[in-house]
Amino acid sequence: QVQLVESGGGLVQAGGSLRLSCAASGRTFSINAMGWFRQAPGKEREFVAAISRSLSSTYYADSVKGRFTISRDNAKNTVSLQMNSLKSEDTAVYYCAAGPRSYLGTPDYWGQGTQVTVSS
Question: What's the pLDDT score for residue 103?
Protein backbone atom coordinates (compact mmCIF):
# COMPACT_ATOMS: atom_id res chain seq x y z
CA GLN A 1 0.00 0.00 0.00
CA VAL A 2 0.93 3.63 -0.49
CA GLN A 3 0.00 6.46 1.83
CA LEU A 4 -0.23 10.04 0.60
CA VAL A 5 -0.30 13.05 2.92
CA GLU A 6 -0.95 16.56 1.64
CA SER A 7 0.02 19.88 3.20
CA GLY A 8 0.02 23.55 2.29
CA GLY A 9 -3.63 24.41 1.77
CA GLY A 10 -5.19 27.54 3.22
CA LEU A 11 -6.90 30.84 2.55
CA VAL A 12 -5.47 33.27 0.00
CA GLN A 13 -6.72 36.34 -1.83
CA ALA A 14 -7.40 36.25 -5.54
CA GLY A 15 -4.20 36.81 -7.46
CA GLY A 16 -2.11 35.27 -4.71
CA SER A 17 -0.09 32.07 -4.56
CA LEU A 18 -0.03 28.82 -2.60
CA ARG A 19 2.18 25.78 -2.72
CA LEU A 20 0.79 22.32 -2.01
CA SER A 21 3.01 19.39 -1.12
CA CYS A 22 2.36 15.68 -0.90
CA ALA A 23 4.56 13.06 0.71
CA ALA A 24 4.28 9.41 -0.22
CA SER A 25 5.20 6.51 2.03
CA GLY A 26 4.89 2.75 1.98
CA ARG A 27 5.38 0.85 -1.27
CA THR A 28 6.62 3.92 -3.12
CA PHE A 29 8.58 1.81 -5.59
CA SER A 30 5.22 0.86 -7.13
CA ILE A 31 4.39 4.47 -7.98
CA ASN A 32 4.95 5.99 -11.40
CA ALA A 33 2.75 9.04 -12.02
CA MET A 34 1.81 11.42 -9.19
CA GLY A 35 -0.47 14.38 -9.39
CA TRP A 36 -3.39 16.40 -8.14
CA PHE A 37 -7.15 16.42 -8.47
CA ARG A 38 -9.61 18.87 -6.94
CA GLN A 39 -13.25 18.92 -5.97
CA ALA A 40 -15.27 22.08 -5.50
CA PRO A 41 -18.55 22.10 -3.55
CA GLY A 42 -21.36 20.56 -5.59
CA LYS A 43 -19.02 19.53 -8.40
CA GLU A 44 -17.31 16.34 -9.48
CA ARG A 45 -13.67 15.70 -8.74
CA GLU A 46 -11.52 16.91 -11.64
CA PHE A 47 -7.95 16.42 -12.80
CA VAL A 48 -5.52 19.28 -12.19
CA ALA A 49 -1.96 18.17 -12.97
CA ALA A 50 0.29 15.13 -13.10
CA ILE A 51 3.96 14.23 -13.55
CA SER A 52 5.63 10.98 -14.45
CA ARG A 53 8.36 9.32 -12.37
CA SER A 54 10.90 10.07 -15.12
CA LEU A 55 9.95 13.78 -14.85
CA SER A 56 9.82 13.85 -18.63
CA SER A 57 6.05 14.14 -18.84
CA THR A 58 3.79 16.70 -17.22
CA TYR A 59 0.08 17.16 -17.78
CA TYR A 60 -2.20 20.06 -16.87
CA ALA A 61 -5.88 20.81 -17.06
CA ASP A 62 -6.59 23.66 -19.46
CA SER A 63 -8.02 25.69 -16.60
CA VAL A 64 -4.67 25.84 -14.77
CA LYS A 65 -2.12 25.92 -17.62
CA GLY A 66 0.25 28.82 -17.27
CA ARG A 67 -0.69 29.38 -13.62
CA PHE A 68 0.11 26.07 -11.87
CA THR A 69 3.40 24.16 -11.97
CA ILE A 70 3.84 20.58 -10.81
CA SER A 71 7.20 19.27 -9.64
CA ARG A 72 8.51 16.13 -8.04
CA ASP A 73 11.44 14.95 -5.91
CA ASN A 74 11.84 11.21 -6.35
CA ALA A 75 14.51 10.97 -3.66
CA LYS A 76 12.06 12.35 -1.11
CA ASN A 77 8.95 10.77 -2.65
CA THR A 78 7.21 14.12 -2.80
CA VAL A 79 5.18 15.99 -5.37
CA SER A 80 4.37 19.69 -5.20
CA LEU A 81 1.95 22.03 -6.90
CA GLN A 82 2.87 25.70 -7.15
CA MET A 83 -0.31 27.67 -7.71
CA ASN A 84 0.00 31.28 -8.89
CA SER A 85 -2.54 33.87 -9.98
CA LEU A 86 -5.21 32.08 -8.02
CA LYS A 87 -8.85 32.69 -8.86
CA SER A 88 -12.01 32.19 -6.84
CA GLU A 89 -12.87 29.26 -9.10
CA ASP A 90 -9.74 27.48 -7.86
CA THR A 91 -11.43 27.09 -4.47
CA ALA A 92 -11.69 23.36 -3.79
CA VAL A 93 -10.37 20.45 -1.80
CA TYR A 94 -7.16 19.37 -3.48
CA TYR A 95 -6.26 15.69 -3.46
CA CYS A 96 -2.86 14.16 -4.08
CA ALA A 97 -3.01 11.02 -6.21
CA ALA A 98 -0.63 8.36 -7.46
CA GLY A 99 -0.64 5.31 -9.68
CA PRO A 100 1.58 2.68 -11.27
CA ARG A 101 1.40 3.94 -14.86
CA SER A 102 3.30 6.81 -16.49
CA TYR A 103 0.01 8.64 -16.90
CA LEU A 104 -2.22 9.19 -13.91
CA GLY A 105 -5.51 8.00 -15.38
CA THR A 106 -7.64 6.65 -12.55
CA PRO A 107 -5.25 6.74 -9.60
CA ASP A 108 -4.77 3.78 -7.34
CA TYR A 109 -3.94 5.91 -4.31
CA TRP A 110 -5.42 9.09 -2.84
CA GLY A 111 -4.55 11.48 -0.05
CA GLN A 112 -7.08 12.82 2.41
CA GLY A 113 -7.29 16.23 0.76
CA THR A 114 -6.38 19.77 1.71
CA GLN A 115 -8.66 22.79 1.46
CA VAL A 116 -7.73 25.73 -0.75
CA THR A 117 -9.95 28.78 -0.47
CA VAL A 118 -9.45 31.80 -2.72
CA SER A 119 -11.27 34.94 -1.63
CA SER A 120 -12.29 37.50 -4.22
Answer: 85
